[in-house]
């Protein structure tokens, strides 16, 4: 039996929702992965009389495809889609059977209108919480458009292929044999990269908003909900919905929820936003802000949106170390997400730069996968919580080096080492390794604002107790501001404050 009792009970409920018959075609060998894959497929088919299984000769072994009877849908899983990918399998079964996907009609229309032949391969790891977004988007595109097909490839089951292609970050997507993208992407981003995104002219024609929120993380979502509840015209413009939280795995300090995961939390937040009449414009980046009769927001595609008030909630991004080799070897051994990319370094030596909570948590997680972890901390002491430091020091395959200033990440095609200087002795050292995980804090996404609003030396937007900036009608919330303590719950609170501040401003003006 492949599935645990609890998961099987859950799956049984989903399979009751199947609308049409499904044919699973299986290509299996005599290896262990093939055996487990066959067991999973047979177990699922035994649970529903709408699912049949037949052997087939697919391009990859082990793999299986999920089809309508008599029609190939182009949805293939190479490996065993358990772990974070189990949801991808369930959705594929439901959508192939005819259940309508939960995406906007405009996105469905964009997918159906794509012409030309497109075959996608996505390389994933089952512990990657970013990968399912990409897998599910490409599966949906394959189901909706007969010109598109997609194979999810578990890097753990196809190690030789992954190594021959030098894939050191997941998800990595190939399109028609050429590398297409690396990292989390929404369905809107994939369409944009294929040249099928929203047109600037559509955005230019939008009526002015009462409140326009820039950014779709916890602060932006909270601000939009609070504004919409006041009955005023509200819009959100965001590069991707969910922000940094989409890259956060375990969340144990979100009050009322003892444990959740970033993507799961933001999926429920997005569902909450969609309950209101909020105009959500994804896959759009702001590039200029100007106060005229309205506050005008110019986007990178040239479109200009107008609003009586604006809330900036653009969040923050991982801070770069800024040493030679970091950019050159990004996704080729330099990584920022231990949960996603850790499994690709199984049995190898890696380093973590940073001794705060995120750095020490990363080192603890990686120690369970890789051969050896070296933690490099710039300061004389680690900054992580005591409970995390105790756990770290109990691990036999971790070395902690303090007072270490990283000077270079070295490599040829991929990373082969890291150089650092001992800040006490000034001695230079070099460690041979295969991967470097950078965990040294955050930088606010505010460079595009220039001097339109006051920012401090770290680039954070200066706000008052109502979330107001130095530009009338412009408010800010979350990690891009001077609000202390960068936490999800604090961002949500500051989003609510900024929305109420903006509403108050609109009443008075």
UniProtKB/TrEMBL annotation:
Residues engaged in binding NAD(+): 349-363
Residue ranges of domain FAD/NAD(P)-binding in the record: 209-492
Enzyme class per UniProt: translocase
EC number: 7.1.1.2
Disulfide bond entries: 337-340
MF GO annotations: flavin adenine dinucleotide binding; NAD binding; NADH dehydrogenase (ubiquinone) activity; NADH-dependent peroxiredoxin activity; oxidoreductase activity, acting on a sulfur group of donors, NAD(P) as acceptor
One cellular component term from this protein's GO annotations in UniProt: protein-containing complex
Any Pfam family: Thioredoxin_3
Keyword set includes NADP: yes
Reaction catalysis annotation: a ubiquinone + NADH + 5 H(+)(in) = a ubiquinol + NAD(+) + 4 H(+)(out)
Co-factor note (free text): Binds 1 FAD per subunit.
Residues noted as binding FAD in the record, renumbered to the chain: 210-225, 469-479
Domain Thioredoxin-like fold: 125-193
Protein function: Transfer of electrons from NADH to the respiratory chain. The immediate electron acceptor for the enzyme is believed to be ubiquinone.
Family from the record: Belongs to the class-II pyridine nucleotide-disulfide oxidoreductase family.
Subunit architecture: Homodimer.
Protein's name according to its UniProt entry: NADH dehydrogenase
Provenance organism: Natronobacillus azotifigens
Organism lineage: Bacteria, Bacillati, Bacillota, Bacilli, Bacillales
């Amino acid at each position: 039996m492949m599935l645990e009792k609890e998961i099987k009970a859950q799956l049984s409920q989903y399979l009751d929702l199947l609308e049409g018959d499904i044919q699973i075609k299986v290509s299996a060998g005599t290896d262990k992965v093939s055996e487990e894959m066959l067991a999973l497929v047979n177990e699922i088919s035994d649970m529903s009389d709408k699912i049949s299984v037949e052997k087939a000769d697919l391009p990859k072994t082990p793999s299986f495809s999920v089809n309508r009877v008599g029609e190939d849908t182009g949805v293939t899983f190479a490996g065993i889609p358990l772990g974070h990918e189990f949801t991808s399998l369930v959705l594929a079964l439901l959508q192939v059977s005819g259940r309508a996907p939960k995406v906007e009609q405009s996105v469905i229309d964009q997918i159906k209108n794509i012409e030309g032949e497109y075959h996608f391969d996505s390389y994933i790891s089952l512990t990657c919480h970013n990968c399912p977004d990409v897998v599910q988007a490409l599966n949906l595109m394959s189901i909706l458009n007969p010109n598109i097909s997609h194979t999810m490839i578990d890097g753990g089951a196809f190690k030789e292929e992954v190594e021959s292609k030098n894939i050191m970050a997941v998800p990595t997507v190939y399109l028609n044999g050429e590398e297409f993208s690396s990292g989390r992407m929404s369905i809107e981003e994939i369409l944009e990269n294929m040249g099928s995104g929203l047109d600037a002219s559509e955005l230019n024609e939008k009526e002015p908003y009462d409140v326009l929120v820039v950014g779709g993380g916890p602060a932006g979502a909270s601000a939009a909900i609070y504004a919409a509840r006041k009955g005023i015209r509200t819009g959100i413009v965001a590069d991707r919905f969910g922000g940094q939280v989409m890259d956060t795995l375990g969340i144990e300090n979100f009050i009322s929820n003892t444990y959740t995961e970033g993507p799961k939390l933001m999926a429920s937040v997005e569902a909450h936003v969609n309950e209101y009449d909020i105009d959500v414009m994804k896959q759009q980046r702001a590039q200029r802000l100007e106060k005229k009769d309205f506050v005008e927001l110019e986007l990178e595609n040239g479109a200009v949106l107008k609003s009586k008030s604006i809330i900036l909630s653009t969040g923050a991004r991982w801070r770069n170390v800024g040493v030679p080799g970091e950019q050159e070897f990004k996704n080729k051994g330099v990584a920022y997400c231990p949960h996603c990319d850790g499994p690709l370094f199984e049995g190898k030596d890696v380093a973590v730069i940073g001794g705060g909570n995120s750095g020490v948590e990363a080192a603890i997680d990686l120690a369970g996968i890789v051969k050896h972890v070296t933690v490099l901390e710039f300061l004389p002491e680690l900054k992580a919580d005591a409970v995390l430091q105790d756990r770290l020091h109990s691990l036999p395959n971790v070395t902690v080096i303090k007072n270490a200033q990283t000077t270079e990440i070295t490599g040829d095609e991929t990373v082969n080492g890291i150089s650092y200087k001992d800040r006490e002795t000034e001695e230079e050292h070099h460690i041979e390794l295969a991967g470097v995980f950078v965990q040294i804090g955050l930088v606010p996404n505010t460079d595009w604002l220039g001097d339109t609003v006051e920012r401090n030396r770290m680039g954070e937007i200066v706000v008052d107790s109502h979330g107001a900036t130095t530009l009338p009608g412009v408010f800010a919330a979350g990690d891009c501001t001077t609000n202390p303590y960068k936490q999800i719950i604090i961002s949500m609170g500051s989003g609510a404050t900024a929305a109420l501040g903006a509403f108050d401003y609109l009443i008075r003006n």
